[in-house]
């Protein structure tokens, strides 16, 4: 019980630290729910997020809750991870760099009963963090010289976090079912400021805000087919419920008199709230003698059917973006598109049971491609290409030889025609404590 309390206290402390940080500087995080964060614990990230068909006895794989049924019956697994990254932004010959670090996740797992495993943790969902500006000439004098400039400043912060509890059950050999029940919360704050060098023109500020508070439910299934004594193939399936997560996002339009500092504020409210998409996933994992594991995952998030919030003013009965009265309660569809992600990867370890340290080192590689889930000015947003490589290093001391230090390096590129190109170099570090909590001493 003391260990459980200490574990829970550490998770709360880690979560508090994570909330105070932003893991991105990307201008693309201003769209939709923000940037989807890397999913999975330390061993998944070495394979670039691969994991729907994996079921490890000494790692927590929350990507598919059915995998919890394979957790070792004698141990308690605790896994925490952090990351650091350098991102290069390029547009029109101009380059900028930004650095970020973030406490990523805290998860735990253990065997609750025979053939029944349990996991719980705090994991990311989306991330928002950007601040940039553009300037242009608004007016010219009689001689054609600029007389008034406008500077547009775009800023945003926040993100969505998830705390979950999950169960994985094996009703019969080689077949497992699982479910994660979670709670989503967070804030999404974005602003656009128009300021003018001519003080006779009012400055304009538009604030978008949404407070997220809702549930999240994901289901998983895994089936393993034995091909021979040394070879097996596992099929993993996942399904996530899509639903509304915020009823009343709002927009404030604030006009500021630059000479008197008097403000005039108009508030708009959403006629249809923000939603998360229904999601589907399928994965295959080939296992050869517990040495070589090769997998492929495909995931689909149905953003294409999600409505975009329509904002209107209840008191003045006027609409933002010239939406007509007839369309007040109609969904606005066409800003988002379905998001697909393809991931391939493998893990190699010579011999997990060997007493030789080097035989138990895990080597991992992964690559993925993801399509955007939103449009920018009517064209597709950026596609993402990424690769990763990592190692799982066994930690050996006089009381434990089961804990693992997972280190991975990732390169990701986001690009779209005539838009900003992003190149990100990221290092992920995860520490998996595998403690022998549930074994009993036998006295002879």
Descriptive notes:
The chain has 444 residues and is mainly beta. Helices cover 5% and strands 58% of the residues. The chain is built from two helices and 23 strands. It has helices at residues 2-19, 42-45, and strands at residues 35-36, 76-91, 94-113, 116-140, 146-172, 175-196, 203-226, 231-240, 243-246, 250-256, 263-270, 274-276, 279-288, 292-301, 311-313, 318-319, 339-348, 362-370, 375-376, 379-380, 383-395, 403-415, 421-435. The strands form three sheets. A 14-stranded antiparallel beta barrel has the order 2-3-4-5-6-7-8-13-14-17-18-21-22-23. A two-stranded antiparallel ribbon has the order 9-12. A hairpin with a 4-residue loop joins β15 (311-313) and β16 (318-319). The longest helix has 18 residues, at 2-19. The protein is elongated, with a radius of gyration of 25 Å. The two termini are 27 Å apart.
SSE diagram, text form:
Elements lengths: L1 H18 L15 E2 L5 H4 L30 E16 L2 E20 L2 E25 L5 E27 L2 E22 L6 E24 L4 E10 L2 E4 L3 E7 L6 E8 L3 E3 L2 E10 L3 E10 L9 E3 L4 E2 L19 E10 L13 E9 L4 E2 L2 E2 L2 E13 L7 E13 L5 E15 L9
Tell me briefly what this model is.
The chain has 444 residues and is mostly beta strands.
């Amino acid at each position: 019980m003391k260990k459980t309390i200490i574990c829970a206290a550490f998770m709360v402390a880690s979560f508090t630290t994570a909330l105070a940080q932003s893991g991105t500087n990307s201008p693309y995080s201003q769209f939709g729910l923000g940037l989807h964060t890397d999913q999975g614990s330390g061993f998944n990230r070495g394979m670039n997020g691969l994991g729907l068909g994996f079921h490890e006895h000494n790692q927590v794989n929350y990507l598919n809750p059915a995998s919890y049924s394979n957790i070792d019956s004698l141990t308690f697994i605790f896994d925490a991870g952090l990351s650091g990254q350098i991102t290069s932004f390029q547009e029109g010959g101009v380059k900028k760099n930004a650095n970020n670090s973030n406490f990523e996740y805290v998860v735990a797992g253990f065997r609750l009963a025979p053939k029944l495993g349990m996991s719980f943790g705090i994991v990311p969902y989306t991330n928002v963090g950007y601040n940039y500006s553009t300037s242009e000439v608004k007016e010219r004098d009689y001689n054609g010289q600029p007389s008034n400039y406008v500077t547009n400043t775009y800023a945003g912060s926040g993100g969505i976090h998830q705390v979950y509890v999950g169960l994985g059950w094996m009703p019969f050999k080689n077949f497992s079912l699982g479910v994660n029940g979670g709670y989503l919360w967070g804030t999404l704050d974005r602003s656009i400021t128009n300021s003018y060098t001519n003080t006779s023109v009012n400055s304009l500020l538009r604030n978008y805000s949404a407070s997220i508070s809702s549930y999240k439910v994901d289901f998983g299934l895994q089936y393993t087919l034995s091909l021979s004594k040394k070879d097996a193939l596992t099929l993993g399936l996942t399904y996530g419920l899509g639903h509304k997560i915020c009823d009343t996002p709002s927009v404030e339009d604030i006009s500021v008199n630059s000479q008197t500092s008097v403000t005039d504020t108009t508030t708009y409210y959403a006629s249809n709230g923000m939603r998360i998409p229904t999601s589907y996933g399928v994965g295959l994992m080939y296992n050869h003698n517990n040495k070589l594991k090769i997998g492929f995952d495909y995931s689909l998030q149905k953003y294409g059917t999600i409505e975009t919030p329509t904002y209107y003013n209840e008191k003045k009965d006027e609409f933002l973006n010239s939406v007509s009265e007839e369309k007040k309660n109609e969904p606005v569809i066409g800003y988002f598109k379905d998001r697909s992600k393809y991931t391939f990867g493998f893990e190699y370890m010579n011999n997990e049971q060997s007493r030789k340290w080097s035989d138990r080192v895990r080597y991992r590689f992964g690559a993925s491609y993801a399509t955007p889930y939103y449009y920018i000015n009517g064209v597709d947003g950026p596609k993402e290409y990424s690769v990763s490589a990592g190692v799982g290093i066994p930690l050996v001391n006089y009381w434990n030889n089961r804990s693992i230090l997972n280190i991975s390096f990732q390169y990701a590129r986001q690009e779209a025609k005539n838009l900003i190109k992003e190149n990100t170099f990221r290092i992920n570090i995860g520490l998996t404590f595998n403690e022998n909590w549930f074994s009993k001493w036998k006295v002879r």
